[in-house]
Specification:
Blueprint: E1 6-11, H1 14-22, E2 31-34, E3 41-44, H2 46-49, H3 59-65, E4 70-73, H4 76-93, E5 97-101, E6 104-108, H5 117-132, E7 136-141, H6 144-154, E8 159-161, H7 165-174, H8 185-193, H9 199-204, H10 207-225, E9 242-253, H11 256-277, E10 281-290, E11 295-306, H12 309-321, E12 330-338, H13 356-372, H14 386-390
The structure holds magnesium ion.
Length: 407
């Protein structure tokens, strides 16, 4: 019987590849994508890597090493559009998919009867590249840790199913133990003290000694390297206790129209978060900080748990009116949703105001923004914030990028 297989799909230099989808003239050229201040390269093409440029290097050094390079500012709004397109394609190939980061997915990789895992890996890689336009690498193996090692070594544009234990061992013997996700330099140094240098050394080491040295984290990796899955696919996260969106208002303001604009923007961000986690909010709190550090907060129980923008904005206005000191400049605002529930546990629409139109608007907003880009379709109440939306850098806050930390 064939073992249960896990796949890992990872886009090849994702930010650069995403830019090449909309700017095809960038293909074959050395391209660097810059961080939010434009000061350093956060992603680079293979052509730029060949010039000796490393991720995190300041732009002035890069321009000296690679004067003919093309340098672009990051645009997470666009990357997210392509990320969602990749996710929906992977879901067509697999019944269980974990969104691991903006350009990486783990998935159940068991092809139908008669199909080989290798053919499955190639078909998925080719399909994603053809439809989304981003080159990707697919690795398939007996556990998540093995699948990621396989795809890392098969880059770029690789497709490899490694299901035979002998072939697995041959690969592990070639890789340093620090290639394993979760083994950074400190853990690698501890392992070196036991004479463990390669991934194969790790897999062959005594399990109890590994546990003693690296706790249960190390033991999980040990099982995974030996082909026994010890990490589940996280396709359905447990509900959070609270979800929150907000932050700085980019300078104090006492203008009621602008404040309503921020309230609507943060409500839209919160709705995205509720939709992403597939939960509804039973209670909403609004927190306001004024320029002189005075704070105000108010919370309200919603008549029925909801993820509807119109109902949440009404509740947010109610709370804001009780937490803001009129005339005093506000500098920060947070919306916090609690008493989160899965919609399946509540009778949707039983007590809500007639919702046909609100649901249709929410659906349209979701679909247009998934296709065109975040905030392309948004509440009219955000119009006074024209300056915020005009600036692409404001399209995302760091906390809006799930699973990936960037600067
Ligand atoms: Mg990648």
């Amino acid at each position: 019987m064939r073992p249960h297989l896990i796949g890992h799909l990872d886009a090849d230099c994702f930010y650069v590849s995403a830019e090449r989808v909309r700017f095809p003239f960038l293909r074959g050229k050395p391209v660097g994508v810059l961080g939010n201040q434009g000061a350093c390269v956060i992603a680079k093409s293979y052509e730029m890597k060949a010039r000796g440029i490393a991720t995190g290097e300041p732009i002035w050094d890069c321009q000296r090493k690679c004067p003919d390079g093309v340098y672009l500012k990051r645009d997470f709004r666009w990357y997210e559009v392509l990320s969602r397109a990749m996710l929906s394609l992977v879901r067509r190939f697999s019944p269980a998919v974990e969104y691991y980061s903006i350009d990486e997915f783990f998935f159940d990789a068991n092809p139908g009867p008669g199909a080989s895992p290798q053919a499955f890996a190639e078909a998925l890689r080719n399909r994603v590249t053809e439809v989304v336009g981003v080159p990707v690498t697919v690795g398939i193996a007996r556990s998540k840790t093995l699948a990621k090692l396989v795809s890392d070594t098969a880059k770029p544009f690789g497709a490899l199913a490694l299901t035979d234990p002998d072939a697995e061992r041959a690969l592990l013997a070639r890789l340093p133990v620090s290639d394993i996700t979760g083994i950074a330099s400190r853990r690698a140094a501890r392992l070196a003290s036991l004479g463990i240098h390669t991934c194969l050394d790790f897999a062959l080491a005594d399990r109890k000694r590994v546990r003693k040295l690296l706790t249960v984290v190390g033991e999980i990796l040990w099982w995974e390297l030996n082909g026994t899955p010890a990490q589940r696919l996280c396709t359905d996260r447990p509900p959070h206790k609270a979800l929150s969106r907000g932050g700085s208002l980019g300078g104090p303001t006492a203008d009621p129209d602008r404040l309503l604009g921020w309230l609507a923007r943060n409500t839209e961000r919160l709705v995205e978060e509720l939709e992403y986690h597939a939960v509804t909010a039973g209670r909403l709190q609004v927190f306001v900080m004024h320029w002189n550090a005075a704070t105000g907060a108010h919370e309200i129980d919603l008549p029925q748990p909801t993820d509807r923008f119109d109902l949440l904005l009404d509740a947010a206005k109610h709370c804001f009116a009780r937490s803001w000191v009129p005339g005093l400049g506000a500098s920060r605002m947070h919306l916090i949703a609690t008493r989160l529930r899965r919609p399946g546990f509540v009778q949707q629409g039983l007590f809500e105001a007639p919702d046909g139109r609100a649901r249709a608007v929410a659906k349209l907003k979701r679909e247009v923004n998934a296709k065109v880009g975040r905030f392309a379709l948004r509440s009219g109440a955000t119009l006074p914030l024209y300056d915020v939306y005009r600036d692409r850098e404001q399209g995302y806050d760091v906390c809006d990028i799930r699973g990936k930390l960037c600067f």
